[in-house]
């Protein structure tokens, strides 16, 4: 297939691009590099440095794209609470412009990076796709809004749409000559921050809240290896059916407290990871653990690197060799 990957210079989009190319697809990447990295771009893909709002300049009516995989967007729950207008503009309006362009270009398949943040403080654990959606931050609200837009697009125009709701993505893609890991700036994700502390680049790790109703009082999250996540996108692309919007949670179904993650980082790196406990952050749910039963049953998805140890170990290899 000829596929457009938005956000293909970012952490997850650049890994998925590699898998798509390996599977024999033709890939064009649309990314304005606002948070992505030119070095992460796959050399065998075509690159268009274009913003989501201008997607129609790439998705022209005669461009012949079969599908879009949409990763581009802003991803910080914290920033989304202080800059809501920017999050709505990029994650919602930008995504709608992309959808308009995809429709005009006759694109039949669309896979979207949604998030566990759409569920907010979950009413049940593990979280199912049918669980109540009640985001507690603007980031999650923008993602839920675009999920709903995709449902409408499937109803109204017969799009074959899939939303993949990722839980916490971790680890790295490591091959001879290629290493892709997390390099968000500013980094807000726990594992890369803990690795920076272990490497001596930060003095300490801030743990936001230790009075949650969890085993040690710190938040519980479900982690998924970026390679397992990437594989699910290829399965979703194949499983997409015209006129349907399918939604799948992607996680491992086991939760780790923030303190447990810090312990694994200390164990893998062999370095101390000092922590300081700070107040809870606004909008942070206590526990987010996925049920991915639907992805297993309908996509045939099986994670190959489900352990936190594997994820931290790959992330550490990437960190030591590529970000010092
Ligand atoms: N990383 C996670 O743990 C996680 C969890 C749940 C969902 N997601 C979702 O997955 C997607 C990818 O996340 P990531 O971690 O790879 O993020 P990332 O920041 O590494 O990549 C995002 C990419 O999108 C590009 N981009 C942003 N706004 C753009 C715009 N307006 N026009 C064109 N390009 C633009 C950036 O330059 C960057 O290359 C995001 O949509 C995110 O919400 C990520």
TrEMBL record:
The keyword Transcription regulation does not apply. It comes from the Bacteria. Belongs to the NAD(P)-dependent epimerase/dehydratase family. It comes from Phytohabitans aurantiacus. Its EC number is 5.1.3.2. The keyword Acetylation does not apply. Keywords: Carbohydrate metabolism, Isomerase, NAD. This is UDP-glucose 4-epimerase. NCBIfam families: galE.
């Amino acid at each position: 297939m000829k596929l457009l990957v938005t956000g293909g210079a970012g952490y997850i989009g650049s890994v998925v691009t590699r898998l798509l190319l390996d599977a024999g697809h033709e890939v064009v990447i649309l990314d304005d590099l606002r948070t992505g990295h030119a070095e992460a771009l796959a050399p065998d893909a075509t690159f268009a440095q274009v913003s989501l709002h201008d997607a129609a300049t790439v998705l022209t009516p005669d461009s012949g794209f079969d599908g879009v995989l949409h990763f581009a967007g802003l991803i910080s729950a914290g920033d989304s609470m202080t800059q809501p207008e920017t999050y709505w503009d990029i994650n919602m309006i930008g995504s709608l412009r992309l959808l308009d362009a995809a429709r005009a270009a006759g694109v039949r398949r669309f896979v979207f990076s949604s998030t566990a943040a759409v569920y907010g403080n979950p009413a049940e654990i593990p979280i199912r796709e049918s669980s109540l959606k009640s985001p507690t931050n603007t980031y999650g609200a923008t993602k839920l809004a675009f999920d709903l837009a995709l449902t409408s697009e499937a109803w109204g125009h017969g799009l074959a749409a899939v939303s993949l709701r990722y839980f916490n993505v971790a680890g790295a893609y490591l091959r001879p000559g290629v290493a892709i890991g997390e390099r968000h700036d500013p980094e807000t994700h726990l594992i890369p921050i803990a690795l920076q502390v272990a490497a001596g680049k930060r003095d300490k790790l801030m743990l936001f809240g230790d009075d949650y109703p969890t085993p040690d009082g710190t938040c519980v999250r479900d982690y998924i290896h970026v390679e397992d996540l990437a594989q699910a996108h290829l399965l979703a692309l194949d499983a997409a059916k015209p006129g349907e919007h399918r939604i799948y949670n992607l996680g491992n179904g086991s939760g780790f407290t923030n303190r447990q993650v810090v312990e694994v980082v200390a164990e893998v790196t062999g370095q101390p990871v000092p922590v300081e406990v700070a107040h809870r952050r606004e909008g942070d749910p206590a526990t987010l653990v996925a049920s991915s039963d639907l992805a297993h049953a309908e996509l045939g998805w099986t994670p190959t690197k489900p352990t936190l140890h594997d994820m931290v170990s790959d992330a550490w290899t990437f960190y030591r060799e590529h970000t010092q």
